[in-house]
User: Fold these one by one.
Assistant:
Number 1:
Amino acid sequence: MFLIGMGALLVLCGILYMARAAIWRGPLSGPDSSRPVRDTLEPPRRGVRFLGLGTNWPGILLMAIGAVLLMWGASF
């Protein structure tokens, strides 16, 4: 039971870490927020850099360890 709980906690922490990295990546309007307001708050090219492995590896690692613990706990 302890392994299942710890695995679930690690998976949840990994998801929250990756969500935090995506949300708090930076201001939506870019480094120069003194520009006039456009029709949208989104910048013209945000990119998908925040979804890459370089910024999310700790979250992916936490989720992988949690998944292993979940499967190991479920096998007993």
Note: The radius of gyration is 18 Å.
Number 2:
Amino acid sequence: MSEVLVLYYSHTGTVREMAQLVARGVEGVAGCAARLRTVPRVTTTAGAAGPVVPESGAPYAELKDLQECIGIALGSPTRFGNMAAPMKYFWDSTGELWLKGALAGKPAALFTSTGSLHGGQESTLLSMMLPLLHHGMLIVGLPYTEPELFATRSGGTPYGASHHAGAAGEFPITEHERRLCIALGRRLADVALRLARPG
């Protein structure tokens, strides 16, 4: 069974819920399983904070998770149009993998959640692409063959799945957003399997 890493940071639980939907899409592809991982919060001095093992939810990611999986779905809430600091801190620690080219050629997909409708969903997805492109990864988006992209009135972009949560997280994930998260996971798993098993 090949695994796709679904790596996320979630402050209020919304991105975690999206990660679970992406994982459902991954696991809907025969021969593929999702490996859910998160990253710890960081302190004001930019060091990792919190317990060594999370009290609940997915385990913290390790560099070996990036190497062992055939693809990566990356999710973070938006912070001023960018990925959240804990996710950036994690990617800043991947230099040894970059030196070896360990992630080159692997597919990756992205997802995010914002407090406001125009709060930087697309710029956050684009900013999360940057370290992945430096690693030589191949970005998998959501094509307009997904009908929900035409129907959504909240989240959903060709750059990746997104959700408009509201300032207080009062808006649940819509049916269109849900379907797009699942479609993203399924599409990533399809591409990853084809790349891992050519022919």
Note: Residues 19 and 120 are 19 Å apart (CA to CA).
Number 3:
Amino acid sequence: MSVNLPPFQALLEEHRSDVYRFLVATAGSAEADDAFQETWIAALRGYPKLGRADNLRAWLFRIAQNKSIDAHRARGRRPVPVAAVPERPSPSAEDSPELWARLRALPAKQRTAVFCRSVLGMPYEELAVLLESSEDAARRNVHEGLKRLREELTDD
């Protein structure tokens, strides 16, 4: 069965900036560049084997979400020579570095759901594909993530 895929370069050009913004928000500015490269390498490797081309954007964000999770796991395994390493805010997070730090602290599905819905305006249908869940579950992840962010920011 042959799938009609656009050229990979066209896919890259169309989604590059949103994928990068997602990774800065979810993995952190220090990890975003590496996660971005790993996302596109993984996408390039898997692209010829795709069985469907109906939602390539969600497929890319699923890969990016996995790379973001990998970055969080790797960060936890790295030795840190000081008690706490201050995180540099990304250029897009200068207005509210605390908000971005709290977003990165959310559970993976909530972090992805809140960013994709709130920042990228991703429809729930597409978000459900990305999260490999139902639309109701995608809505619930956005709701719970935003609720937790509101609670944490108003408690301070």
Note: Confidence is low (pLDDT under 50) at residues 89-94.
